[in-house]
Design a protein that fits this description.
The protein contains eight helices and 14 strands. With 224 residues, it is α/β, with parallel strands linked by helices. A five-stranded parallel β-sheet has the order 2-1-3-6-7, with helices on both faces. A hairpin with a 3-residue loop joins strand 13 and strand 14. The longest helix is centred in the middle third of the chain and has 16 residues. The chain is globular, with a radius of gyration of 18 Å. The two termini are 24 Å apart.
């Protein structure tokens, strides 16, 4: 799952990145309004952690831009201003949650997980596709109730496919979702093929159907 952290205080920004990375999230972070605006215009995220007071602008303006773009990313506002008006305005603009500083990082992580679960998984901790079951909380996969051992990237790739089942996903979208900023320096997307080939092989060997379809010139689709 891919998270964008927009926080101008460097030590808090780093603390959130370090902690959420340990929780197996792919984290990108910025400290300025302009950089944040560029990120949300170019990429999609499973959840955005958004500070209100930023150098060069206001986080609520970013939230307005997200909604104007009809972007469905989850948003949790973090702010030192524990004012009712800010909370009401943020929620009215479309934020999913509001957390007042200072806060404990485990609480932030739990709230992020709840937003992702509500938006992508209809509130469930498990995602079922045919004989495949993904346990989001435990980050495990079973096929016909037998454990399927995957690498972290293979797990994230399978989860991304199942959440977006029956939709064509371009190589670029897959790469950005799984590798984030690192993709900007990649020469090509050939390595994605290797991860998909390995995931497909493991699923078939475990008894699952061959659900990953290559769509010529467009990308991949996960469907029956």
């Amino acid at each position: 799952m891919k998270i964008l952290i927009i926080e101008d205080e460097p030590s808090l920004n780093k603390s959130m990145v370090d902690y959420l990375t340990q929780q197996q999230y792919l984290c990108e972070s910025v400290t300025k309004y302009a950089d944040a605006l560029e990120k949300i215009e170019r990429y999609n995220y499973d959840c955005i952690v958004l500070d209100i007071m930023l150098p060069g602008g206001n986080g609520l303006q970013l939230l307005e831009q997200l909604k104007a773009n009809q972007n469905t990313d989850g948003v949790i506002i973090i702010s030192a201003r524990n004012e009712l008006d800010d909370k009401i305005t943020g929620i009215q603009l479309g934020a999913d949650d509001y957390l007042t500083k200072p806060f404990h990082l485990p609480e932030l992580s739990v709230r992020i997980a709840a937003i992702i679960r509500r938006k992508n998984l209809q509130g469930n901790n498990q995602l079922q596709f045919q004989e495949i079951c993904i346990d989001i909380k435990g980050k495990t996969v079973t096929v016909n109730n037998d454990p399927l051992v995957l690498t972290r990237k293979e797990y994230e790739l399978l989860l991304y496919f199942v959440i977006n089942k029956n939709r064509i996903l371009s190589k670029n979208a897959i790469a950005e979702h799984l590798w984030g900023d690192d993709m900007d320096i990649a020469d090509n997307h050939d390595f994605i093929y290797t991860h998909i080939k390995n995931l497909r092989r493991k699923m078939i060997q475990a008894g699952a159907g061959d659900y990953i379809q290559s769509v010529y010139g467009m990308g991949y689709k996960f469907s029956v």
